[in-house]
Amino acid sequence: MIIDGKAIALQIEAEIKDKICKIKPYLAAVTVGTNDATQSYIRNIQKIGSELGVAVEIANLQSNSSTQEVIDLTLHLNSKADGIIIGRPLPSHIDEQAVIAAILPEKDIDCLHPINLGRLILGTPLFTPCTPQAVMEILTRSNTKISGKRVTIVGRSNIVGKPLAIMLIQKGVDATVTICHTKTKELLLHTKSADILIAAVGFPGLIRASMVKPGAVVIDVGINVVEGKLVGDVEFKEVEKMASLITPVPGGVGPITTRLLFRNVLLAKSK
Ligand code: NAD
Q1: Phi first, then psi: what are they for 108, rounded to 5°?
Q2: Domain annotation for the chain: domains and CATH numbers
Q3: Which residue of 4, 83, 216, 233 is surrounded by the most CB atoms within 10 Å?
Q4: pTM exceeds cut of 0.85
Q5: Which residues line ligand 1 at a C-beta cut-off of 6 Å?
């Protein structure tokens, strides 16, 4: 079965819309320079915000701005906005971790601040990071049993693979997780034994049918552009035949991730 990420995204919108209308949160996005992918991601957030009734203000700094200038803007927004996101990647001369550390943890709705990641590990999060949470929403809303299952995550980034692994091993969720990365030997051994396989790599078509256990749940976080078209990390057409549940790209994890950002703004405003 193909999981309809847009339908789940609409469910989440419906769950948060009334509250948003009452509280009217304000989200600030800090961007630096003109990276096309970043600008289009932030504009998409602004568009969804306007549909939901959340003001999303984009504060754009010039590409030659210093780390201190980005930090100063972030500190200023801390006193105004309910939630703050940083458009990433920042230009390479900017110390991204220093900028993230300048966000007040209770306004860090992307859950990137060291305090928020620490709280996530401890199992007492203020927020959960949106993309890993989107994967969790897919699993829970499709009634996928997670407890005791073998989950393999391909990708160990700070925004997807690592926090997702932490979320899956928490008490009460209780998965057994394997994380694979560029230095993993015999990737196939790890993917093939997974009851739930999650690809968060950024490599089109990396996961082939031969790498998937029959009946596995396959979640594709990857977003790649191939010949002008969006594709995931999973070779969808062939893996679809092996999987019991599979997410498409586009229309899978992505739309859920963006709605969860607004759920986090709501949480931030209520704190
Ligand atoms: P990243 O580049 O930070 O991390 C990629 C990870 O994949 C690394 O840990 C690397 O070790 C691993 N990797 C790369 N090649 C590999 C290989 N051949 N075998 C095994 N592991 C390999 O990327 P990221 O920020 O985690 O994003 C991953 C993908 O997810 C990208 O396509 C990105 O666009 C997408 N993404 C989607 C959403 C969404 O909402 N759908 C959100 C964030 C990222």
Answers
A1: -85, 75
A2: 24-106 (3.40.50.10860), 130-254 (3.40.50.720)
A3: 83
A4: yes
A5: 131, 154-157, 159-161, 180-182, 184, 187, 200-203, 206, 221-224, 253-254, 257
